[in-house]
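Sample 3 of the quickstart, ligand coenzyme A:
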Amino acid sequence: MSPAVRRKKRKDEIKVSVAPLHNMADYKACEDIQREVWHSQDLDIFPAQMLLVASRTGGILLGAYNSLGDLIGFAFSILGVLNGEPIQHSCMLAVRAAYRNFDVGFKLKLAQRKEALKRKITAVTSSFDPVLPMNAYFTLGKLGARATAYEENFCGETTSSSDRGLPTDRLMTYWDLDSNSVIGRLDAGPQRHDFRKELKQYTIINHLDEVAPGMANSSAVKLNCTEDQFLFEVPYNLPEIKSRDLGMALEWQGKLRQAFRHYFKKDYVATDFWVMEQDGRLRAFYFLEKNK
Ligand SMILES: CC(C)(COP(=O)(O)OP(=O)(O)OC[C@H]1O[C@@H](n2cnc3c(N)ncnc32)[C@H](O)[C@@H]1OP(=O)(O)O)[C@@H](O)C(=O)NCCC(=O)NCCS
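Result:
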């Protein structure tokens, strides 16, 4: 059985339904899931009452339930306005660790998209930490959202375990729900690549220098690229680097800041995130292109 078929089979084994929260106990369960996923102190938790009010006043709160009816994840967005148009801003997407990589997060986002479109809202904005390849792949690669801006220390200091140690830099994303590119990405899944060919086709604006096993720095970033499309490589194990050597993670954050701020100013956007296997190791790339 091929890895793709095996993965699909695993996903089919999990029965998940997505629906608005059933009762107050589910709102409380959202608090527990936040504690489990982000290990935050209570000051950084969206309380049940706030979730309830926001979901009754234009926000969208959807839960993922397992076959026993337990809440295993949720997606939460609030109503906002961008350039005079109503949008949903996605504040949280969380899936309990035991249920990850079974498409639960994807199903929650599909349901959020459907609900937003039903309300005639055609965009969901959100943000993610660019040092987390998993979030980059999920948001850009799987959902087909685009990153259009880079915010330094966006959330200030938080108590979330994933923010610990570094300023809370974020890539700001725009998910154009009804665009052909998003519909195509959701229908066909993340783009399949012939990486051997494609890596030769595109400029890579940096390269990795392995200084110890599993520990790679970035070379200087090329800032004079004028190609319409190019790649920026990051270590697939960046979160592990962060936990082993905060100084090296800080240097990576500096390179990400430099590359994104520079090229966003030149009207590029990040439209994809590639993960490829080469010679037994995983490589990861942000894909940037001129805004069309
Ligand atoms: C982000 C999150 C909600 C995703 O939920 P999920 O149910 O695991 O999502 P899915 O199964 O739909 O998709 C996960 C994808 O990431 C891939 N993935 C897993 N680990 C990865 C990694 N280290 N790097 C890149 N991709 C990775 C999986 O293979 C899967 O892709 P595939 O379906 O093409 O194989 C979940 O991981 C989570 O709760 N994370 C912590 C909270 C968080 O960071 N939220 C913000 C999200 S932007």
